Amino acid sequence: MDDTHIQALQSRIEGEIAAASTLAELDQVRVAALGKKGAVSALLATLGKMSPEERKLAGPALNGLKNHLNGLIADRNEELKKIELERKLQGEKLDVTLPLMPAPVARGTIHPVSQVIDEITAIFADMGFAIAEGPDIETDYYNFTALNFPEGHPAREMHDTFFFNPDEKGERKVLRTHTSPVQIRTMENQEPPIRIIIPGRTYRCDSDQTHTPMFHQVEGLVIDKSSHIGQLRWVLEEFLKAYFEVDEVSTRFRPHFFPFTEPSMEVDVQCDRSGAEVKIGQGSDWMEILGCGMVHPNVLANSGLDPEIYQGFAWGIGIDRLAMLKYGMPDLRAFFDADQRWLDHYGFRPLDIPTLFGGLSS
Ligand code: DAH
Do 100 and 120 reside in the same domain of the chain? Predict the structure, then answer.
């Protein structure tokens, strides 16, 4: 070992120390030079095998090198720590003049249809109603026959039904055209008294500003031994007042025809159409809002209930239309476009669950 060898080693390691740009790199240089198997440590290990004269010269030179490098490493270590802190501070810089980022929970919103279903549910739950559900893909029997639509009756055509291809038995399933089939399914499985609402998806081959091929209805059904039209009217008026958040509503019941009710009626609600928005519960205009009636004895009998013992009433309302009326949305098709801007505008905050005591839509 001679001086030039030590010199070369020193300048190589000095270069490496200066070039280390992170604390991790610097540590690698330290280990390679001064670690157990490092280049300088290997030279120090040879001291023991040297003659005393050689050792006298090499010992101070090598220990000097070791101390010199240790010093350089410590200095570079300090420098790099400062640089890394500076880099971290730069990365964490906050511009307090930037607009606030919305919290994640505020970014998603509740679709108006879901909101309105929650509102309707809160209102009827408060009156003691339970929720019932049935399948979207229905048999012709539940969608029509059991509901007293005779074979070939024009009312079947009026529903613009989506039919499936016939199965092996020649039977064609349908996408349910209304929520009424769930009346039958419930009466088949439940002993009266029955008090249910049935919110759900319904389908008809129709599309314009106020019609979409998929839409939503909420059906109501009450069956007991003495249910009557007076109760029907009270329930519906209480519902309309609570839903539209007004103190009074007037309703007008007009005779109508549905195969599954007798008598059948359409209900108009008092409103004011003089401004840009329809206002419910004031003014001198009327707007048709739902269909209802006393459950037809054939429907009771088809569901296994004795019409001599039981009677009841039912109604059906379009949920999307209720949403449009309350929240002022002009075009139903936009409900199902999944346009983020529409949802941001008309959506509801997810943590505001509608309750009667907290205010339905506040
Ligand atoms: N199912 C009817 C429709 O879709 C709505 C309806 C009317 C439901 C009267 C009822 C009712 O339960 O009693 O047009």
Answer: no
Residue 165 lies in a domain: yes
CA gap 76, 78 in Å, rounded: 5
Does 150 share its domain with 80? Answer: no
The protein residue with its alpha carbon nearest to ligand 1, atom 6, reads: 316
C-alpha 104 to ligand 1 mean position (Å): 41
Of the residues 107, 122, 147, the one at which a domain ends: 107
Identify whether residues 76 and 164 lie together within a single domain.
Answer: no
Count of structural domains, the chain: 2
> Strand 130-131 vs strand 194-203: parallel, antiparallel, or unpaired?
parallel
Nearest CA-CA partner of 69 in 6, 117, 157: 6
Ligand 1 centroid–CA 331 distance in Å is 23
Residues sharing a CB contact under 8 Å with residue 59, sequence separation 6 or more, in sequence order: 47
Range of the domain at 212: 112-346
Our mutation pick for probing the ligand 1 site, out of 129, 149, 218, 260, counting the most ligand atoms within 8 A of Cβ, is 260
pTM across the whole model: 0.73
Minimal-distance CA residue to ligand 1 atom 10: 315
Handedness of CA 233, 257, 267, 143 (dihedral sign): positive
**Count of Cβ atoms closer than 10 Å to residue 142 Cβ:** 21
Residue 362 pLDDT greater than 70, yes or no = no
Q: Tell me the percentage of the chain whose pLDDT exceeds 70.
A: 99
- Tell me: the pLDDT tens digits for 94-112? 888 998 887 777 778 999 9
| 33 domain-assigned | yes
**In a shared domain, residues 282 and 236:** yes
Give a yes or no: residue 352 inside a domain: no
Cβ atoms within 10 Å, residue 30: 22
